[in-house]
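User: Modeling request: complex.
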Amino acid sequence: MTDRGYFGEFGGSFIPEILVATFEELVQAYEDARSDPSFWSQFVSLMGSYSCRPTPLTYAENLTKHFGGARIFVKREDLNHTGAHKVNNVMGQGLLVQRMGKGRVIAETGAGQHGVATATMAAKFGFSCTVYMGEVDVERQRPNVFWMERLGAEVVTVKEGTRILKDAINEAFRDWVTNMDDTHYVLGTACGPHPFPEMVSWLQSIIGQEARVQVLEASGRLPTRVYACVGGGSNAMGLFGGFFDDDVELVGVEAGGRGLDSSAHASRLASADATRGVAQGYKTFFLQDRDGQMRETHSVAAGLDYVGVSPILANLRETGRVRFEAATDAEVVEALALTMRKEGLIPALESAHAFVQAFKEAPELSSDDVILINQSGRGDKDIFTIADAFDDPGWKAFICEKARHYDAR
Amino acid sequence: MTDRGYFGEFGGSFIPEILVATFEELVQAYEDARSDPSFWSQFVSLMGSYSCRPTPLTYAENLTKHFGGARIFVKREDLNHTGAHKVNNVMGQGLLVQRMGKGRVIAETGAGQHGVATATMAAKFGFSCTVYMGEVDVERQRPNVFWMERLGAEVVTVKEGTRILKDAINEAFRDWVTNMDDTHYVLGTACGPHPFPEMVSWLQSIIGQEARVQVLEASGRLPTRVYACVGGGSNAMGLFGGFFDDDVELVGVEAGGRGLDSSAHASRLASADATRGVAQGYKTFFLQDRDGQMRETHSVAAGLDYVGVSPILANLRETGRVRFEAATDAEVVEALALTMRKEGLIPALESAHAFVQAFKEAPELSSDDVILINQSGRGDKDIFTIADAFDDPGWKAFICEKARHYDAR
Amino acid sequence: MMLADEIREKRQERDILLMTHIVVGYPSFDDSLRVVEQMVAAGVDLMELQIPFSEPIADGPVILRANQQALMAGSTVERCLVFAEEVNRRFDIPFLLMTYYNILFKYGVSDFTGRMAAAGIAGSIVPDLPPEEAKDYLEAMGRNALEPIFIFSPNTRDERMRVIAKHAGGFVYCVARKGVTGAETSFSDEFAAYLARCRAATDLPLALGFGVKSRSDVDFLRGQVDIAVIGTETLRVLDEHGVDGVRGFIEGLR
Amino acid sequence: MMLADEIREKRQERDILLMTHIVVGYPSFDDSLRVVEQMVAAGVDLMELQIPFSEPIADGPVILRANQQALMAGSTVERCLVFAEEVNRRFDIPFLLMTYYNILFKYGVSDFTGRMAAAGIAGSIVPDLPPEEAKDYLEAMGRNALEPIFIFSPNTRDERMRVIAKHAGGFVYCVARKGVTGAETSFSDEFAAYLARCRAATDLPLALGFGVKSRSDVDFLRGQVDIAVIGTETLRVLDEHGVDGVRGFIEGLR
Ligand SMILES: Cc1ncc(COP(=O)(O)O)c(C=O)c1O
Ligand SMILES: Cc1ncc(COP(=O)(O)O)c(C=O)c1O
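Assistant: Request completed. Predicted assembly structure:
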């Protein structure tokens, strides 16, 4: 039997028989690409001309002064085309789809980021595209639905289950089970059955590879600690990927929601609420009840409220290589406000989780220390959520006025 | 008397006496910076680490095939931090403000792009910041107001005049007249009194300098024609700046609004409706009535509906070095839709004007020809306008629902 | 007697067996019990009892919704096991548990199979557990003399079919086509070739599922497979005609 | 007689002259005419007639709004010139036109100054036209024996004051402080030094504007400058008390 992508006890490939052949093909294509150096250089050149890789490394001078400890650097994945690190994985898989000779892609999306990235990739590569999105997410992330449709994708509203990300994943699998011959499922994070966790982490490792060179060049040394938010785990795996062999502390920050003792959070590795389980095709820590039914999660950041987490990260928690923390909604909004005012940067709500933890730890480090935060995406996409988080009266009046205008027609 | 920045018969410096000393200081600072090579390298390095310069050059393979003529390349100013070329000028002026030792910046904004860029720069440099914005624009560009405020800027709603960009400029001048000692006015485009047209064009020329190298590298030859939209003229001057000495045709595309014969447009150089005039501190073509009163303009793109235009471009029209065309609102929406579907790119409505003209001309050129379009900004910021242009029912329902939710609280 | 033999024996009497499916606790435990009653009375030969799971990745919309509603109505693993025990005591046909692997994993595979055996259940179908991931499961099933039902699909290659067959017990569940439960299947030449491949790969009886919904479907399968599986369609009948409609529907199939 | 001499002569009688300002056509041409009547009756010595412009960059909110409303109410350049002609015929004080350069430029500087001269206007104030840009204007004004009023500001350096003075005619308009029309000014020591610089730079009479609004302001200026300019404040009085309030306000200033 072939390698099924285990990382310690986590990972594997728990898939319906009907998909086994499709996964075998995918594993093959992935392994071929991975051992073919021209694939990576094609990938790097595509990302350099279509997105803006290498994304810059920004020295956050004002935040550094503000906290008076470690020098703070920010990796600018927010400057990517479509506004987040998601596009790295998506464009890489696009190249794989081309190699496999398929003509259609499907994807799940929660925050909408991954869906927009996939719709963009499909437009660029000339694939047809269907994106599954939970009804709850469609309602709160309408701007992204709009863009996906304009990019030519069909957006299917998933009305099953809790109508969020995990249900969209289930629905995407259902599509795949039916249409695997011509269709590739572009999974959006380092989760799911093998080879997705490994493959997505590999494609995202472009972040860490760049960041390592950039930090060395900008500060003359390796970072003491690096911080990334953890939804499924792809941006974290991407950044960490540049530093596994170094003496660098890796910190993953999950959604603490209303607090780890509130049960309204999405913390699978930093809280004791999650337990080992098998769902959506792989084994990891899930937020589930005693029977193994998945629980509802909560986060102010739509991209972090997932019930599972990368099996690779689950293993790295067990081995102690990565430390996991959680940031609450309130802390996130505060860190976001500070970052905007001090640096003119607008991190996505997801990314702001990493900022929270870095801000907690920066003061206790010395000015010889360097810390690196992954700004996985930009906050523009979150205006509806961020405006609500700040309870902005001008924004509300604007929306109400706009609605009156629509109603009148 | 000192050089007052004339380009042929256009330009000059028609300013109240109270500002003369301030302008002298600015001209001095600008000239010092321009003759100090370290300024430009500091600028380039800032833009490389804070924004994502060099911005990529993307080969639009699908559009090229679609039109079957010239090879189409797109310069990706949309990938800049804050989402448009505006940030080039703004960060450059930020460095100048630092040199001048001032602590406050003011700016006018129409579309909001320049205001957000300035608020961002002010946060980064630690300046205090006031942005003037016409009431009409505040109403239609609320997301940008929200971000400016979060970035720490004070946004002043201008209720005078036609309550759009030109009125915001007047208001910014009024502030400056009062507070010039500690305040720099960050004008957002290649207009206004000397040295603004020349200085803004110089800072934006980073676009053209990069693009020239990139096109040569990607296609082995210089472009046959380059296209840029023209509001005030800064992105056009920036791109053209790389090609003035080459045998390259330069095409500026203005807002044709509802058509050049409708009078609801903002075409100062491509239509016969504009005449020579002096306002807002400089001489150029203005859309004005027989008495010299400025007229109302119209464009689907908030960033293009300005009554004046860069005096440098006015002169380049007279000399014939630049050709000017206009794109109507309807053509713009169509070109935008095509570009999204074919390439996964979302140009700003402003930038889409350049695409319209390039699309008209690409088929008549041969595959040996290369054309270059400046994608001056990204369309995300325009979702309210674009969704309206497409009359998107899902979007409207979303806004109405959101409003009901706010009303209920 | 081993399940496979029991099936072969019944096949002496009937040219095709029927296996039906319920989601336990949907729409309620009482209704589930009455549906089993009706099905047995209508002459069903085997039954799948699906323990609902929140992420039924291989199920189509109808069964998916039944899973969710059962969970919302309070179906727990414990109550499902008690239910299984009860129907097995009261009705004289083999019952199988169908569920996703997380239900077993979370319960503890060893404990779970112990409970199955104690309840007199014949075996189980776990659609997201391919044999490669099934080491613990297979051991525990073997220890408890339970039949691990595995699945063939049209794109399972011959070699792999033989590997799967080696691990399988009771019968092999052949999915008729790509896709999830509950969609249309057209029974083509390709289909005959597929069944021939299934036959060649194993001596176990073959069940065919996904899309069987009418007497003509069953007629078509007669002589080709041992068991026709009616899954989604009974749920549709239940939803439309209530518990009392089920018996007539089943009787009409054969 | 040259305007400067006329002013010097009047100053023999009065220790300070008053110059007031109206926006022509605000709120209507009839009202404008009545306001001029009232002002002349109240003893005003000179008047600025502002031809409204859509972009009055150097004016504060009160005058800005008056510009816009006058335009909306139909004030055109032609009507303003006719108005200027009429008041000049009816009232025996010097009138100046105040407007932005585009109004002259668009009309044609030569034609415009010709019309001014024909209307008997004494000169003009064009706040966005520094002498460096004023070549055509100065020539045309000279040709028509019109006085080009120029402006000093607190941050105009001595040397530049002298250059400006060389081009100026009639009097020099000294702005009291940084800022646009209509805001507060505090009359400090710095201010005294500024006025001394203005005096040193030119022999022409000096007018002081921006912020003069009460009798005590005028008292303060007495002896220091030749003309106190009351701009924004009359507009405020007009807005609050109507045309009939203007006369009392002006009379109260001196
Ligand atoms: C900006 C951003 N950051 C982070 C995430 C979380 O995903 P991951 O943990 O895979 O990086 C998302 C998901 O949508 C996202 O949009
Ligand atoms: C994206 C974009 N492009 C173009 C313009 C027009 O300005 P300019 O002509 O100065 O480039 C604007 C102005 O806001 C803009 O936002």
